[in-house]
Structure formats: C-alpha cells, structure tokens
Design goal:
With 131 residues, this protein is an all-alpha fold. It is built from five helices and no strands. Helix 2 packs across helix 3, helix 3 packs parallel to helix 5 and helix 4 crosses helix 5. The protein is globular, with a radius of gyration of 18 Å. The two termini are 25 Å apart. The mean pLDDT is 87.
Length: 131
C-alpha cells in the first residue's frame, strides 16, 4: 500500500477490505454448498464465483510487480486456465465429479498461495541476512 492510499480519508477508504471479505464469504459459501451437494439456488453462482476467485487470488498474489489492471487480467486468465486444466485432467483420467473438480481447484489454488508465501518468506530472510 503506498502513501497515497494510506493518507486517503473518507468512506471509500474501508471499501477494499469490505469487498475482499464479502468475496471471501461468497466463495466460501459456494464451496460449502457444492461440497454438501445442497439444492440451494445460490449453489451454482456462488460455486462458479469460487472457481474463478480462488485461482485468480492465488495467481494475483504471485504477480506483485504488475500494475493493478494487468494483474487482474492475468489473474483471471490464469484462473480460467487452471479451471480448464483441472477439468481436462479429470476427464482424461475418467474421474470427473463436481466435488472432485472443486477439490482439485482448491488444492491447486492453495498450493500456489503456499508457494508464494514460502518464496516471500525466503526473500525476507535473505534480506535480513544482508544477501
């Protein structure tokens, strides 16, 4: 966060964390509804949101150096690629299921986030040592 964003005051200042929390809630509810095999009419749209948001968030976290619009576009394109690769892989091995696909996307997204976290921790430790 740069100094301009920190110095900003007014009602829009707290909008980004609020939207991030709402997106997390919607994605989590979508995943929970799909895993429970719920008959809710919200299951489809919320699960679809999760299937795009989880990999896009993981990929976006890895792209810290890009400008925000480029980061958004690359993260969304990467999310589509992850979803399609998971679907193609499950179809190829004849193991397709909704919950299996959702679990695979969740695992891939979590692994990408974990890799980003580990690389950042390694870089931070290297800076502290003076390398």
């Amino acid at each position: 966060m740069d100094d301009a964003e920190r110095a900003r005051t007014g009602p829009g200042r707290d909008l980004v964390p609020l939207l991030a929390g709402a997106a997390t809630a919607v994605g989590g509810i979508g995943a929970a509804l799909a895993f429970r095999d719920s008959g809710s009419p919200l299951r489809g749209p919320f699960t679809l949101f999760f299937l795009f948001a989880a990999p896009a968030t993981a990929i976006g976290a890895a792209l810290r150096g890009l400008d925000p619009m480029g980061r958004l576009l690359v993260a969304l394109a990467g999310a589509v690629v992850v979803d399609m690769l998971v679907a193609q892989t499950l179809l190829t091995v004849h193991r397709w299921s909704v919950t299996g696909g959702l679990m695979a996307v969740t695992v891939v997204s979590a692994l990408i986030l974990l890799l980003v976290l580990l690389l950042r921790l390694r870089d931070r430790a290297a800076r502290r040592r003076g390398e």
